[in-house]
Amino acid sequence: MCRAWATITCMNANSLLPELAQRIPPARLLQRAEQLAPYESDALTAFRTRPQAVVLVENQAEVIEVVRLCHHYEVPFVARGSGTSLSGGSLPIAGGIVIALNRLNRILHLDPVARTAIVEPGVVNLEVTRVAAAHGLYYAPDPSSQLICTIGGNVAFNSGGAHCLKYGMTSNHVLGIKAVLPDGEVVQLSSSSLESVGPDLTGFFVGCEGLFGIALEITLRLLPKPERYRTVLASYASLQAAGDAVTAVVASGLLPGALEIMDRLAIEAAEASVNAGYPRDAAALLIVELEGEAVQVEHEFAQLQQLIAATGAQEIRIAQDDAERARIWKGRKGAFSAVGRLSPDYIVQDGVVPRSKLGQALAEIERLSAHYNIRVANVFHAGDGNLHPLILYDGREEGALHRAEAMAGEILQLCIDLGGSITGEHGVGMEKRQYMPAMFSEIDMEVMADLRRAIDPLELANRGKMFPADDALAAPNHAPHPLEKAGIISRA
Ligand SMILES: Cc1cc2nc3c(=O)[nH]c(=O)nc-3n(C[C@H](O)[C@H](O)[C@H](O)COP(=O)(O)OP(=O)(O)OC[C@H]3O[C@@H](n4cnc5c(N)ncnc54)[C@H](O)[C@@H]3O)c2cc1C
C-alpha cells in the first residue's frame, strides 16, 4: 500500500509543483537538494526523508491555497513548526509537500481582561509569555523546548512541560482553533470559552498530530503570573529515595507546580553543559516548586520543608531569588540537549506509568540498561509518572541504533504492562506507531481510523504517522521499519 502511495505521490507532485510555482515566489518554494536537507528530519534524527518541496508560507491564505492544491492533486503534506518533534511527527512524506509555518508568527490579539490571546501557529511558545508579561499574565504549558517550539506543534502534540502537573497540558489551555481541513475547508472550532455547547471539537483537534489539518489561528487561555514561587532542590543517595519523596509530597495533599527528578547521568550532563550548580555527588535530584498566592505558598512551603527534611535528603537547597530559581530550571530544561555531551547519539524516550509504579519502572529500566550494556540518563516529570529515559548510543557502531531502539521498545512495553501509556507528551509520530496496537484494542484502532478517514479519506494530512502500516502491526521495534523496507524513509 505504501509503495503504491509513493508512486502516485511522485506523479501528482509533478503536476502540483508548477501550480505552486505560479503562486509562491521561488525563494519560498524550496526544491533543490541543499534547500530540502534541513527539512528532511526533525529532532528524531534517526529518520530522514526527502520531500518533493517545502513551501515557506507567509499567511493563512497561502496555507489554505497550498492545502487545496495538495487535495486537488492528491499529494500528501506535512505541517511543520520548528521541527523539534522527538517522535518523527514532522518527518516529511517522500514525494510530499512540507508546509513550513514559522513565518505565521504573529500574536493577533491579546485581551488582558478576558485573559486570552489569539495567535498564529508559528508563534514560539515562550513568546506568548513574553508578550503577556506586560499584563501580569503568562502561558502555562512549558515544554523544555519552549524557547523554540511553536504553538502549532504544541497543539498537534498536546505538549506538556514541567508545570503541567498543576495546570494541565496544552489541551487545558486552548479555547478555540481556526483550522484548514485536509480538503481545504476552513473551520472554526469553539472560540473563547472552555465550556461550549456540543461536542468538544477543539479537544478533538488538540493532540491529533497534524492528521486533521492545519491550525491557522489558536485562541489560548492566559493565567495570572504567580505572585510567589518557592523552589526546592533536594539531593538523594538513590533514585528510589527521590521517588519515595515524590510519593510523600503527593500523599501530603500538596499540589506543587512541578515535581521533577533527574538521575546521576542527567545531573552530570546538565552540569557539564550549563553549570546549574547541582550537587555532583547525588544519585538523584528532586526539584519541587510551589507557586501561587504568597500567603498560600508560604503556608505550603513550611509544610514542604518539614516533609522533605523527613525524606532522608542528603542536601536541601532553597532558591533565594529569581536568579537561583532560573539556574535550577536551566539545568533541568537543558537536560535533553546537555546529554549530547555524554554521547554522540541518544534516543529520548517518553512513556508514562502510574505514579505508584515509578520505583518499579526505574528499577526495570536499570536492569535493561545493564542487560543491553547501554547507558541511560533519566529525567522525568515525576509528579505525573512521565518518564524520559535518554538512551545513549553511538550511531557509528554497527547495530548500536537497533540495540538502542530495541531497548526503547522494551521500555514502552514496560509502560504498557504497568498500566501506563506509550507517550506522555512527545506523541506517537513515526517512532511509536507500531506500538499503538499494543495499547489499544482492534476496535479502538478501527474507530480511530474511521474518524481519521471521515475527515481525510485520502489520508493526505501527515500520512504514515500515528497509525501502524498494515505490515508493521507485528514488527518488533528493532527490525527494519516497514517504510524503510518500502524505500519510503531511510535512516541517517
Ligand atoms: C530539547 C527538547 C526538549 C523537549 N521538551 C519537551 C517537553 O518538555 N514537553 C513536550 O511536550 N515536548 C517536548 N519536546 C518535543 C517538542 O518540542 C514538542 O513536541 C513541540 O510541541 C513540537 O513543536 P514544533 O513547533 O517543533 O513542531 P514540529 O516538530 O514542527 O511538529 C510537530 C507536529 O505538529 C504538527 N504541526 C505543526 N504545526 C502544526 C499546525 N499548525 N497544525 C497542525 N499540525 C501542526 C506537525 O505535522 C507534527 O506532527 C522537546 C523537544 C526537544 C528537542
Could you characterize the architecture of this molecule?
By secondary structure, the protein is α+β, with helices and mostly antiparallel strands. The chain has three domains: 1-103 and 431-492, Uridine Diphospho-n-acetylenolpyruvylglucosamine Reductase, domain 2 (2-Layer Sandwich); 107-224, Uridine Diphospho-n-acetylenolpyruvylglucosamine Reductase, domain 3, CATH 3.30.465; 228-338, Alpha-Beta Plaits (2-Layer Sandwich). The protein contains 17 helices and 22 strands. The protein has helices spanning 2-23, 33-36, 60-73, 125-132, 151-157, 164-167, 201-205, 239-251, 264-274, 294-309, 322-333, 335-338, 358-372, 400-417, 436-439, 442-455, 482-485; strands spanning 29-30, 47-48, 53-56, 77-80, 97-100, 107-111, 116-119, 137-138, 174-180, 186-189, 214-221, 223-224, 228-236, 258-263, 284-292, 315-318, 345-348, 351-352, 376-381, 386-387, 389-393, 490-491. It has a seven-stranded antiparallel sheet, with helices on both faces. The protein has a five-stranded antiparallel sheet with strand order 6-7-11-9-10. Strand 6 (107-111) and strand 7 form a beta hairpin. Helix 13 packs antiparallel against helix 14. The radius of gyration is 23 Å and the shape is globular. Residues 471-479 have low confidence and may be disordered. The structure holds flavin-adenine dinucleotide.
